[in-house]
Design brief:
Number of strands: 0
Shape: elongated
Mean pLDDT: 86
Low-confidence stretches: none
Radius of gyration: 21 Å
Oligomer: single chain
Order of helices and strands: HHHH
Helix content: 55-70%
Length: 125
């Protein structure tokens, strides 16, 4: 009986680690931009416009801030998922489907580096 789990080589894991680390850096920059956009209370220079236009503008600003907050929440989850992937790399369990126990295809991991399911398992959901 062979209980040894199939896993990616250390070389492959290092390659994935580099991809994930770069994605985390970019995602954190994007998150900061999103957070700055909804935390920013800057006036858009509507002081001299009609009150009707100003209230419309403020409503639009509020919707944009809410949309950016939602994007920021999704971005935070993405970063957390990427960091969890780094932990799986350290544990040498990265790239193993949590349902089938088989290796997730390299192409899938390069596109979705935080994936924990193979395409086969994902389709069954």
């Amino acid at each position: 009986m062979d209980d040894v789990k199939v896993r990616y080589s250390d070389g492959d894991l290092n390659e994935f680690k580099e991809i994930i680390t770069n994605k985390i850096e970019q995602a954190e920059k994007d998150l900061k931009l999103l957070q700055d956009s909804y935390k920013n209370g800057a006036d858009n220079g509507t002081e001299d416009t009609s009150p009707t236009f100003k209230s419309f503008e403020e409503g639009s600003d509020t919707m944009a801030k809410e949309a950016n907050m939602q994007l920021a929440i999704r971005q935070e989850k993405f970063i957390r998922d990427l960091k969890n992937a780094l932990i799986r790399i350290e544990n040498k369990t990265y790239g193993v489907c949590r349902v089938t126990g088989k290796l997730i295809q390299k192409e899938r991991l390069k596109l979705v580096p935080h994936a924990t399911l193979s395409i086969e398992a994902k389709r069954k959901q």
